[in-house]
Amino acid sequence: IIITPIAVWLYKKSKKWNYVFWAITPLYLTLSYVLQFTVGKDIPLKATLFPAWFLFYWLGVYCNLEKKGYLFKTKVPLVIIFVMLSCFEGIVLGKMASYDIAVSQLKISSCLMSVAVINLILHYKDKYRVSDKNVFVTLGNISYGIYYVHMVGIMISNHFIKIWNLTKFISLPVIQVIELVFVLILSVITIFITKKIIGKGPANKLLGF
Q: How far is it, in rounded angstroms, from Cα 147 to Cα 202?
């Protein structure tokens, strides 16, 4: 709501801002690495703050502004390269830093791998079109809203998993599937109720639902 008009205005005024926007997330993650290696602490609420995910946000805005169907001509090889790089970085960080940072989604290599996967999907999105009524299309259309509210569902589900000690009776993969379904359902219901209460227009304009 706040970032979009400012970022688009700056980019249209000078395309040099494009380099700044692409650099925000890598620099933010580099700072995270430096803090963990030097003082053993990470950025407070690292994953909550916008610089952590700005790379993906700007990717979408950039492709829309420039009417680009994809970012890179290279497809599958790029994904393979960054998957291998992500695994390698995870091993190195696991030995040099900690397990938490090694398995984190917020590693530079993991972000690059995600961009490569998105690039691959963009290459084939027109070739393999699906119905607008497809459940994945529906979830995709409200994905920004899910991003906004999913943490509430995760906190609720984690609370009950802990107080009911479910990990003692149910395997972790099963719990993860149950939690995923619960969070998705709760997020969709929350978005639906919000649209009903304040209307689709305000919900879209103010919350991105």
A: 18
One DSSP character per residue, the chain reads --HHHHHHHHHHH-TTHHHHHHHHHHHHHHHHHHHHHHTS---TTTTTSGGGTHHHHHHHHHHHHTT-S-S-S--HHHHHHHHHHHHHHHHHHHHHS-HHHHS-S-SHHHHHHHHHHHHHHHHHTTTT---TTSHHHHHHHTHHHHHHHHHHHHHHHHHHHHHTTGGGTS-HHHHHHHHHHHHHHHHHHHHHHHHHHH-HHHIIIII--
Tokens of 138: 């529906």
Q: pTM of the predicted model, to two decimals?
A: 0.70
**How many C-beta neighbours within 10 Å does residue 43 have?**
17
| Long-range pairs for 115-118: beta carbons < 8 A, 24 or more residues apart | 115/55, 115/56, 115/59, 115/71, 115/82, 116/72, 116/78, 116/79, 116/81, 116/82, 117/79, 118/56, 118/59, 118/71
Model confidence over 48-101: pLDDT tens digits?
Answer: 888 998 999 899 889 888 888 778 888 889 999 999 999 999 899 888 877 778
